[in-house]
Amino acid sequence: MSEITTVGLDLAKNVFQVHGADRSGRAVLRKKLRREQVLDFLGRLPKCVVAMEACGGAHFWGREIGKLGHDVRLIPPAYVKPFVKRQKNDAADAEAICEAALRPTMRFVPVKSEETQGTAMVFRVRELLIRQRTQAINALRGHLSEFGQIVPQGAANASKLVALVEDPESGLPANAIPTLQVLIAALAHLEAEIGKLDAEIARRAKENEVARRLMTVPGIGPLIATAIATLAPPPETFRKARDFAAWLGLTPRQHSTGGKQRLGATTKMGERSLRRLLIIGANSVIIKRHVHAEARPGTWLGEMLTRKPPMLVRVALANKMARIVWALMARGGVYQSPVAAA
Fold this sequence. Notes:
The protein is an alpha/beta fold. It has 3 domains: 97 residues, ATPase, nucleotide binding domain (Nucleotidyltransferase, domain 5, 2-Layer Sandwich), CATH 3.30.420; 94 residues; 129 residues, no CATH class. A 5-stranded mixed beta sheet has the order 3-2-1-4-5. Strands 6-7 form a two-stranded antiparallel sheet. A hairpin with a 4-residue loop joins strand 1 and strand 2. Helix 5 crosses helix 6, helix 7 crosses helix 9 and helix 11 crosses helix 13.
């Protein structure tokens, strides 16, 4: 046991696999543990590096194992996969995690605190409720179309669907109206709950100093600012602004060789919620370009809008916004428009 310097721990619901290695990387321990045995076993080991794949439960185990004095390292699963030899099983996964942790250039995920995970929950729940609201709207729209009542798509037209059900002259069958009213009641409940979460996010944005500074960037409101302040890793995790944009998946995918540069679509790596929110924020700037100095003719964004497809411009602007966000988080200060600063 005293020779172990690195432990690869493959997480599971009940049965965990442990792989221990010495300084040379030679395997000296392979063991299965029940969930209740993990902390007791690791507590009897000498202080070492304990590596796990980053997932929802990994942060809990990272905090608990860190209390035992071990150096906890979470590795993105995509970086572990190349080290899996042939067949995939728990023992092979634990060995691959251990080998990946020994690489000097390996990138690790910071362990989140309970406060950070609790704060991030509001965004997950809000996304779930929005998906459920979309399902209710689509179901209501689909059922009405069976009776010849056609309403355009989109949440903005939900009121038209409700009005059709409540209109006695709509021609809907009497036995269908009570069932449709169930969907309307569910839709109203979801709208109310989403409104409560939006109010909570706005309150947090006012109390968070980083979020207040991020809201000075055009296209970033309370929702996006609070999400970035909560979900994004510390700015010192990245060497420069481009690394942060690449982590969000807003940079082109490279497939270059022999000195030939081949760039493809965006990588779509990292936190997809933040990437989607930044693209939505960029879209709001483009829609209201007449009120934003950054989108006036002659500016970078104004020239892009005249030469490039709209969606490409949105992603490019989201990329630029991500770099500005990193600069504000890393260096402090507030956003100043290049036009206003000139």
